[in-house]
Amino acid sequence: MSFPLVRATIGAVRRGSQSCSGGRRDFPAEHRRVRWESAGVGRRSALAARAEHDRRMEYSTAMLTEETWPDFAALVTRSNGVWGGCWCIGFHPDGPRGTPDPTVSHQEAKHRHVRDGTNHQVLVYADGTAVGWCQFGRPAELPTILNPGAYARDASTPPDWRIGCVFVESRHRGHGVARAAVTTALDEIRRAGGGTVEAYPEQTVERKPQRGAYLHTGPEELFTQFGFVRDRRIAKWRWVMRTTV
Length: 245
Description:
By secondary structure, this protein is α+β, with helices and mostly antiparallel strands. It is 24% helix and 21% strand. The protein has 6 helices and 9 strands; from the N terminus they run E-E-H-E-H-H-E-E-H-E-H-E-H-E-E.
């Protein structure tokens, strides 16, 4: 694969031009390489070291397709199936919160979505290895969000797009992988026509620290960086957040 080099700040990644409005979507599989510039250095030495690390990090992104499926599968396998063997199927209609087929494994169900073009997901690569992702799609593609009862009670205008699962391999957390993934996901949404985008992150302030794996819809502060604002609370620590691209 070719790796065209692009040095950019957060939000300046450009990727394919294929529409996401319906039918099968075959996004280009070539990677886009991005150098992330940290916004500043923290006062404490640990934060300063992390900021310096982030300045030097260079990631590439690619859509999850049949061609990149082995990279995704390797990441999930290294991560013990991700959250008990989810394989990032939870937000799909045939996930465990929807109407799953008991004869089909989560792995095969996910692979089927990739083959059928009913999955949109950005993979983030470090040194040629997939280390994280951001899942996004139309509401019909990702209908089984968390806390559906609370969500429906105060529902406003339906979004055009949803961001579902945000995952980063444990040893790469805290170094800009999620930012790279969300940046490219929003860029793909913008190129597909844009609209209102919803995310369902966890509030992290005013609560005890959580394991990174628990924040599988992302922390709130990740999305505030991209202009998302709180719409309403749907659980003690979970919010609906929205932006328009």
